[in-house]
From TrEMBL, chain A:
Residues 43-119 form the 2Fe-2S ferredoxin-type domain. Coiled coil: none annotated. Keywords: Iron, Metal-binding, Oxidoreductase. It holds the Pfam family Fer2_2. This is Aldehyde oxidoreductase iron-sulfur-binding subunit PaoA. InterPro entries: 2Fe-2S-bd (IPR002888), 2Fe-2S-bd_dom_sf (IPR036884), 2Fe-2S_ferredoxin-like_sf (IPR036010), 2Fe-2S_ferredoxin-type (IPR001041), 2Fe2S_fd_BS (IPR006058), Aldehyde_Oxdr_Iron-Sulfur (IPR052914), Beta-grasp_dom_sf (IPR012675), TAT_signal (IPR006311). NCBIfam families: PRK11433.1. It comes from Methylobacterium crusticola. It comes from the Bacteria.
TrEMBL record, chain B:
It holds the Pfam family FAD_binding_5. Keywords: FAD, Flavoprotein. InterPro entries: CO_DH_flav_C, CO_DH_flav_C_dom_sf, Diverse_Substr_Oxidored, FAD-bd_PCMH, FAD-bd_PCMH-like_sf, FAD-bd_PCMH_sub1, FAD-bd_PCMH_sub2, Mopterin_DH_FAD-bd. This is Aldehyde oxidoreductase FAD-binding subunit PaoB. Residues 1-223 form the FAD-binding PCMH-type domain. It comes from the Bacteria. The gene is paoB_4. PROSITE patterns: FAD_PCMH (PS51387). PANTHER family: ALDEHYDE OXIDOREDUCTASE FAD-BINDING SUBUNIT PAOB, XANTHINE DEHYDROGENASE SUBUNIT C-RELATED. The lineage of its organism: Bacteria, Pseudomonadati, Pseudomonadota, Alphaproteobacteria, Hyphomicrobiales. It comes from Methylobacterium crusticola.
From TrEMBL, chain C:
This is Aldehyde oxidoreductase molybdenum-binding subunit PaoC. It comes from Methylobacterium crusticola. InterPro entries: Ald_Oxase/Xan_DH_a/b, Ald_Oxase/Xan_DH_a/b_sf, Ald_Oxase/xanthine_DH-like, AldOxase/xan_DH_MoCoBD1, AldOxase/xan_DH_MoCoBD2, AldOxase/xan_DH_Mopterin-bd_sf, PaoC-like. Residues 32-138 form the Aldehyde oxidase/xanthine dehydrogenase a/b hammerhead domain. The gene is paoC_4. It comes from the Bacteria.
């Protein structure tokens, strides 16, 4: 079956920020709406995101995750916990997967960041994205970008001889068995519980047995 | 997270001087622990010195046949290094038993052994905690303690050291090299690196202000079989209830350290000397004087059973 | 369309699109990260301000003072709203709890302030400057201690939710039974732990509120916000096209939505708020922990003569009980029964719905009890369940099940799983350092008929657009709606656009209680019949005789392309499914048989699940691909319930200590093996014109018990207090040496 149809969210008027209408008269009057002091000075950072050079000027506290989501509007990278407990924010930095929530954007000067948007687009899917679609390897979709980025990077790690907790002989060539696949993907939590299908999807791309 | 200023360090000694010269300054490298704590304002640095680009990323042989691991070597790089896999399997295994692929790609060797504890009350910022607010009291006492330490604790703190790598390093008698703000260097045995809480639980490591960890050194290989078994409720991505790091020799002797049970990696040399007499004897001696709670007393028999498993692996 | 008599043959029976493994129509967006969730609506709101919620740090008492001066003066702060500045706002629908306003604190992390700032970082930092002072009372939060004073529970809602069920003479029959089981079980508090936190972007335009939020039932959110804010519901618009999981947590409005609205009003600008993850477990709702007593009396040949099931749980005053005895009402036959519940008052986060409420924790206990009874009787656990199957409502023997194929689930499941290879002697099978065992359990969950509306429009180009405020929380609803429209109108699924989750659209059942799929597609079925009539009228066909297939309308020898009907303008069909009394005449339910093989490390007691299989009877399966996902996801959640999930209560301070995804462990990849799912093919003509039933929750029912029973079979250790963690087994594990 094709996949051309999608929930339509494309035709909406944009509500402008400061120009929004006034509050309902029925509501209690706002208390103390005066602004506080100025924000701390911002720092410049230049990085390459999905192949495109981006220059940002950011509060040093902005994480790589929030830089992507709030400043570059690349919301494919998800915030599930903001504390390194879920993996929804997994992106590739210089080809390596990390949690974008536990990284300051200003520390990524010169880095190349790849997000799920950089892997493929609707109609031009990365093989991993296509495999997730074919195997119904997701449900709500919120952990999915992280799972996909993680899976892509994980296959590369196998190739580089990075061991895992499931590795038997540390010095033997790495083979992506079912146990290895599941252990190496364990940094990406899926509460919808698509794990069995995710394993199938990743194995299909890797050409291994789930 | 409070506002902070930020700089990128140019040299190790320069970084040390930069941190030493500014109250509230901190080093940042992987950031996986520090940033988490900054979001809760458990850590409130006023200035961050980014050491990520310092030349502390090498793994090199030492003249005595050991290995010198740069402080900024990531957990993934360390676990994947051919010599580490071959000669120090307990290090590789301990690393990959911890966290996740993503976190290990970012976390550094020094940052890992400096990670702070994971006591839930340390994170519950409105409740007392002697590590977070010295002198305020310990909320864990009388609270939810299943994950916490059973030995080495004090009436002021019962948090456990959550590390895996540190347990392996303890078994190997690793060393920690540092540079001070004045450029002076020193080496600290890993056995002395993690302190027991005593009456000052907020002091976790013996580093002076601005003192920067530059490397971890491993003595020449011990041979034997290397084991790291980590017990937890779920199969991955969890801290240890109990872990056992061991290097076992064919003659029945060996070294063993326990993780998840104490404020620091728990190795008692006199206890491990009892290895030929079996795991129960080792654990009885290693945990003598333990003060578990009703919720975490299981850790002691679990330690014995896990050591039995490791011993069986060693015989296999 | 009022559905009052069982469905006859209809267009859905063709199953050219419905029932096929159609890939998710929203899948390309989800796998490319281009599906926008509530906090990500850069497409509709430019430059929102950021809100951060400050939670109470006591469980019970009063807020005496909130000092927000420092926060208000902090960099970038636009406003601080505190709870003492207004009276308690009315609670939303289906909850007892005001979300904001007033001094009273009823649970930890109740919202006491909102900080709104120019940036996320500024809001978060300023929130730490809000200083609240409290008068704290001692919280009641130890269920075991409060159970003694618990009050009997009256009925909740619906014919199959009576809280008390007494038939025959239970006491006498139990006393006289030749074989008896009497055991206590406990299930812990659980949290939904959906991956997307509760989140809302809110904006006011000319006194009307729009919230882009993460809601399972749009109308409930709309009604709740209107009620809390004192607005007519017409002035509240709710949009929720993509939802990052819910499992019941997003049935109720939480403080993110209410405070985003209040914050946006305060600063005259759109505001977005996400509940920070560490706030959710104590601020949101929970699955309430239970203590259950089960008594089973049986003849020596295994027939149940008496079933007693008592459950107690705790909740906020005025909130409802966890209906743990519900599945016991209808799962097994026995002439003498005594089922009842009691409710204690606890000052913890509100106990409310979480996936398969009632059934999930009830079956966690009942299905261990059945395993215990089977062993006592020396009867195979599958056989014992088959022996005690009932085809009627035990309370009303004249009331039959519409379709009930539990026995087939058990037989097919056992066969495919290789149950015959199970060694019934516990602790007898070893694989190296692992003790291996198999366990099984039956599953049961009601099917709930709820009204549901939809609209479908045929455009000039022949494309169909479905509009309904139905939501897709990951269940695949948008896809099965597209399939339904395609089947009914005779077009390929690619010709259908589905627009969901907007309160401007016809009101649907929403997502929850596994009532979404059947009701929402039935509402669309009704709308499609209306559109067929309009098409037939426009083209001059008799609607009853016309066939809609292959993109054309055909009767006899005349065939006209469907698009032709809209050449002078779009045609719209809109309708709503409502239900008569068929649920009073028939029990409508779904059934399952769950099988698990586990290995328990004989040294450490660590349990790892090796194989899982579910056989499910849930009426017509609308899409086997997405239905499988529902079931494997539920099985995964069941493994969590069995082996690791528990909110840990600090009984002194009255809060869940492990309130994040690090402390509250849910299964990860490494915990879950390949999972097999078998669907029986028994369309249910009593359920709806779609002949489908719910599927989102039946997959969870019985899973935890199957795993716990497998642990018993592996080790001989019976753990009756979930989760089955190693510390509860170590002292009974065989010697380690």
């Amino acid at each position: 079956m094709g996949s051309a149809v999608t929930t339509d969210i494309d035709r909406r008027e944009v509500v402008a920020g400061a120009a929004a209408g006034l509050a309902a008269a029925a509501l209690p009057a706002p208390a103390g709406a005066q602004a506080g002091g100025p924000l701390p000075p911002a720092l410049p950072v230049s990085l390459t995101v999905n192949g495109e050079a981006r220059r940002l000027v950011l509060d040093a506290r902005v994480t790589l995750l929030d830089a992507l989501r709030e400043h570059l509007h690349l919301t494919g990278t998800k915030k599930g916990c903001d504390h390194g407990h879920c993996g929804a924010c997994t992106v590739l930095v210089n080809g390596t997967r990390i949690n974008a929530c536990l990284s300051l954007a200003v520390m990524h000067e010169g880095d190349a960041v790849t997000t799920v948007e950089g892997l493929g687009r609707p109609g031009d899917l990365h093989p991993m994205q296509a495999a997730f679609l074919d195997h119904d390897a997701f449900q709500c979709g919120y952990c999915t970008p992280g799972q996909i980025c993680s899976a892509v990077a994980m296959l590369d790690e196998i190739g580089r001889g990075v061991p895992s907790h499931a590795t038997g002989d540390l010095t033997a060539p790495m083979v992506l068995g079912a146990g290895e696949l599941r252990e190496r993907m364990s940094g990406n939590i899926c509460r919808c519980g698509a794990y069995s299908n995710i394993a199938d999807a990743v194995a299909a791309v890797a050409g291994s047995t789930p | 997270m409070r506002p902070f200023s930020y700089e990128r360090a140019e040299s190790p000694a320069g970084a040390a001087a930069a941190v030493a010269s500014r109250p509230g300054a901190r080093f940042i490298a992987g950031g996986t622990n520090l940033l988490d704590l900054m979001k809760f304002q458990i850590e409130t640095p006023t200035h961050l010195v980014d050491i990520r680009h310092l030349p502390l990323r090498a793994i090199e042989d030492t003249p005595d046949g050991g290995l010198r691991i740069g402080a900024l070597v990531t957990n993934t790089e360390l676990a994947s290094h051919p010599r580490v896999k071959r000669d120090y399997g307990v290090v590789s295994r301990a690393i990959v038993a911890g966290a996740t692929g993503q976190l290990r790609n970012k976390a550094t060797t020094a940052g890992n052994i400096l990670q702070r504890n994971r006591c839930p009350y340390f994170y519950e910022t409105n409740l007392p905690c002697n590590k977070r607010a010295p002198g305020s009291g310990c909320s864990a006492l009388g609270g939810v303690t299943r994950s916490l330490a059973v030995i080495g604790t004090s009436p002021h703190c019962i948090a456990q050291n959550p590390g895996d790598l540190a347990v392996a390093l303890r078994v190997l008698d690793a060393g920690v090299e540092t540079v001070g703000p004045d450029g002076s260097r020193r080496a600290i045995p890993v056995a002395d690196f993690h302190r027991l809480p005593g009456d000052a639980p907020e002091i976790e490591v013996p580093l002076a202000p601005g003192e920067l960890v530059t490397a971890v050194t491993l003595p020449k290989p011990l041979g034997g079989s290397h084991h790291y078994h980590k017990v937890r409720d779920r199969a991955s991505y969890a801290f240890a209830l109990v872990s056992v790091a061991a290097v076992l020799q064919r003659d029945g002797t060996g070294r063993v350290a326990f993780g998840g049970v104490a404020p620091r990696p728990w190795r008692v040399e006199a206890a491990e000397a009892l290895l030929p007499r079996g795991p129960a004897a080792v654990v009885a001696a290693a945990f003598e004087g333990a003060t578990p709670t009703a919720d975490n007393a299981f850790k002691i028999p679990l330690a014995a059973r896990t050591l039995a498993l490791v011993s069986e692996e060693g015989r296999a | 369309m009022r559905f009052e008599t069982p469905a006859g043959p209809n267009a859905v029976d063709r199953s050219t699109v419905v029932g096929r493994p159609v890939r998710r129509i929203d899948g390309p967006r989800k796998v490319t990260g281009t599906a926008p969730y509530a906090y990500e609506r850069h497409d509709v709101v430019a430059d929102p301000a950021y809100g951060w919620i400050v939670g109470a740090t006591i469980a019970r008492g009063r807020v005496v003072r909130v000092d927000a001066a420092a926060a208000r003066a902090a960099p970038g702060v636009l406003a601080v709203l505190t709870t003492l500045e207004r009276d308690a706002l009315p609670p939303g629908l289906r909850t007892t709890l005001p979300l904001f306003g007033g001094a009273q604190v009823r649970h930890y992390h109740q919202a006491v302030a909102l900080v709104v700032a120019e940036t996320f970082e500024a809001a978060r930092a300023a929130a730490h400057l809000v200083a609240a002072e409290y008068e704290a009372a001692s919280p009641r939060c130890d269920l075991a201690a409060e159970a003694a004073g618990a009050e009997p529970v009256a009925d909740r809602d619906g014919p199959d939710y009576p809280a008390v069920d007494r038939i025959g003479d239970f006491e006498a029959a139990f006393a006289a039974a030749p074989v008896r089981l009497d055991a206590h079980y406990s299930t812990p508090d659980q949290t939904h732990a959906m991956m997307e936190p509760h989140a809302t972007t809110a904006a006011w335009t000319d006194g009307r509120l729009t919230v882009w939020t993460s809601a399972q039932v749009i109308a409930w959110h709309r009604g709740s916000l209107a009620q809390a804010l004192g607005l007519p519901k017409e002035d509240v618009r709710v949009e929720s096209p993509f939802i990052g999981g819910g499992f019941g947590s997003k049935l109720l409005v939480r403080a993110d939505a209410l405070l985003a609205a209040l914050g946006a009003a305060a600063v005259g600008r759109p505001v977005k708020v996400a509940l920070q993850r560490p706030l959710i477990a104590n601020h949101g709702t929970r699955r309430a922990g239970t203590i259950q007593r089960i008594r089973l009396g049986a003849t020596r040949d295994g027939r149940l003569t008496a079933i007693g099931h008592q459950s107690v749980n705790g909740n906020l005053a005025g909130a409802f009980a966890e209906a743990a005895v519900a599945p016991t009402r209808l799962l097994y036959g026995a002439p003498n029964r005594d089922l009842s519940m009691r409710l204690a008052t606890l000052d913890l986060a509100e106990g409310n719905d979480m996936r398969a409420p009632g059934e999930a924790p009830g079956l966690m206990a009942l299905e261990i009890a059945m395993d215990e009874l089977a062993e006592t009787l020396g009867i195979d656990p599958v056989a014992l369940r088959i022996l005690n199957d009932t085809q009627v409502d035990p309370r009303k023997p004249g009331r039959r099940f519409s379709e009930r194929h539990l026995v087939e689930c058990l037989r097919v499941g056992a066969d495919r799983f290789g149950w015959a290879r199970r060694n019934p002697v516990p602790g007898a099978v070893r694989d190296g350092r692992w003790l291996v065992g198999m366990g099984m359990a039956a599953g049961f969950r009601l099917n709930l008929p709820f009204p549901s509306g939809a609209r479908i429009r045929l455009a000039r180009d022949g494309r169909l657009t479905v509009e309904t405020d139905m939501t897709d929380i990951g269940t695949g609803t948008s896809t099965i709606l597209a399939q339904t429209a395609a089947e009914m109108m005779g077009v390929p699924v690619e010709a259908v656009t589905v627009r969901l989750g907007d309160s401007d659209f016809p009101e649907a059942a929403g997502s929850g209680g596994q009532f979404g799929a059947n009701n929402a597609t039935s509402g669309l079925y009704a709308a499609c019949l209306k559109l067929r009539e309009a098409v037939a009228a426009r083209l001059g066909f008799d609607a009853g005789a016309a066939e809609f297939a292959g993109g054309a309308v055909t009767a006899g020898t005349r065939s006209v392309p469907l698009a032709e009907a809209a050449k002078d303008g779009p045609l719209v069909g809109e309708d709503r499914i409502t239900y008569g009394d068929l649920d009073k005449d028939y029990v409508q339910a779904t059934f399952g048989a769950q099988f698990a093989e586990v290995a328990v490390n004989r040294f450490t007691g660590e349990t790892r699940v090796r194989r899982m299989l579910a056989a499910i009877d849930a009426g017509r399966v609308l899409n086997p691909l997405t239905a499988r996902s529902q079931v494997i996801g539920a099985m995964t959640m069941g493994v969590g319930a069995a082996l690791m999930e528990a909110l840990a209560v600090d009984k002194r301070h009255g809060f869940f200590v492990n309130h994040d995804l690090g402390g509250y462990e849910v299964p990860v990849h490494a915990d879950i093996p390949h999972q097999e799912v078998i669907f029986l093919d028994h369309p249910d003509a009593v359920s709806s014109p779609m002949k489908a039933k719910g599927i989102g929750e039946i997959g969870l029912c019985g899973v935890a018990a199957a795993v716990a029973n497998a642990v018993y079979n592996a080790t001989g250790i019976r753990v009756r207090d979930y989760p089955v963690t190693l510390d509860k087994m170590l002292d009974r594990m065989p010697g380690a040496a």
